[in-house]
Design goal:
4-stranded antiparallel sheet; 11 strands; about 35% helix; Aspartate Aminotransferase, domain 1; binds pyridoxal-5'-phosphate; Aspartate Aminotransferase, domain 2; alpha/beta
Length: about 350
């Protein structure tokens, strides 16, 4: 049985969060001399940014809630979804004792955050189609495992994880199930956010770094029950989303008309690139992708990686990842960039 208060680390349950000047006074006033800011202005253009940002990101969350069809209380905002990954681990995992589980090959930050927090990562291999092998989970789930991370679409393989397998884990695991949907906008599947009311242990991660094209601003989202979100808010650094990011994201959310156009163009470019790659002798296999990148198996990943680099093209060499021997991961570029990649690969001997 999932019970969040049992899962949250005892020191966090009883912890008093930092109370900022902006927490202690909300409302109308004419003189703000409560936060040791620079009241003369700032060195930034137009004298901007001398005030601390809203620690609760109210306006931004209201706008995200509309676009994502969730309530603002179900949203946590992080300095990238990487921050949410780290805080989720810190929320429920006792350093030196607890563990998290993920399915390899997958996104590298689950491991980095686990290591940083002195939490062991158990990796269970995906099958040859990069799907979950539920039989491999048997005997692996014990009470020290507090979080299962499922990346769907998965990085670096690009495929969606079967819904029925995820449902099985959500129903049978009594810790948190984090579904990382960084690439969901490029897939045909609906988000797991629609299932939040059915699963109290579900956390869905999304980001502004991919489809929204705002990687430099560092803005990630975690969607979950109000109870989980309020604990994340309690342990986050007070001003984790800076003012520039809040303003720019808000204006992007107020005019979303270009988003589906960009996403459709990236998907069309992906499908063109995937098809063209299958015809190249140097390519052994093109994995189906529901993301904005494609995993390809080549004849010799290290050699082709260096060859591309010598031609000014940087791809990601994934050959050392489990199940990815001789695989390169290629982000979908512009039409012109994709053509240049194809031309370059054609001349490889
Ligand atoms: C699966 C996955 N999750 C999360 C992230 C991190 O996203 P953010 O930029 O929001 O920290 C990435 C970035 O590559 C990713 O591939």
């Amino acid at each position: 049985m999932f019970k969040l208060t049992n899962l949250v680390r005892p020191n966090i349950r009883g912890m008093k969060p930092y109370s900022s000047a902006r927490d202690e006074f909300e409302g109308e006033a004419s003189i703000f001399i409560d936060a040791n800011e620079n009241n003369l202005g700032s060195m930034a253009a137009n004298q901007q940014y001398n005030r601390y940002p809203d620690p609760h990101q109210k306006a931004l969350k209201a706008a995200i809630a509309q676009v994502k069809a969730v309530r603002p209380e179900q949203i946590f905002l992080g300095n990238g979804s990487d921050e949410a990954i780290d805080l989720l681990i810190r929320l429920v995992c006792q350093p030196g004792h607890d563990q998290i589980l993920a399915f390899s090959p997958t996104y590298g930050m689950y491991e980095v955050s686990a290591n940083l927090n002195d939490v062991e990562l158990k990796l269970v291999r995906l099958d040859e189609n990069f799907q979950l092998q539920l039989n491999k989970l048997q005997g692996q789930i014990h009470s020290e495992i507090k979080i299962i991370f499922i990346c769907s679409p998965n990085n670096p393989s690009g495929n969606l994880i079967n819904r029925s397998s995820i449902e099985y884990i959500l129903k049978s695991f009594s810790g948190l199930v984090v579904i990382d949907e960084a690439y969901i906008d490029f897939s045909a599947e609906e988000s797991w956010t629609t299932q939040l009311s059915n699963y109290p242990n579900l956390v869905v991660l999304q980001t502004f770094s991919k489809a929204w094209g705002m990687a430099a601003l560092r803005l990630g989202m975690a969607f979950a029950s109000e109870e989980i979100i309020s604990f994340l808010n309690k342990i986050k650094p007070p001003y984790n989303i800076n003012e520039a990011t809040q303003q720019i994201a808000l204006s992007a959310l107020q005019n979303t008309s270009r988003l589906p156009l960009m996403v459709n163009e990236i998907k069309a470019n992906r499908d063109f690139l995937a098809d063209a790659l299958t015809h190249l002798p140097v390519i052994k296999r093109v994995y189906p992708s529901e993301a904005n990148f494609i995993l390809v198996e080549v004849s010799d990943a290290n050699a082709i990686y260096s060859y591309l680099l010598n031609n000014g093209i940087v791809v990601r060499n994934r050959t050392n990842q489990p199940g990815c021997t001789n695989c390169l991961r290629v982000s979908v570029g512009t039409k012109d960039e994709n053509e240049r990649l194809l031309t370059c690969l054609k001349s490889y001997i």
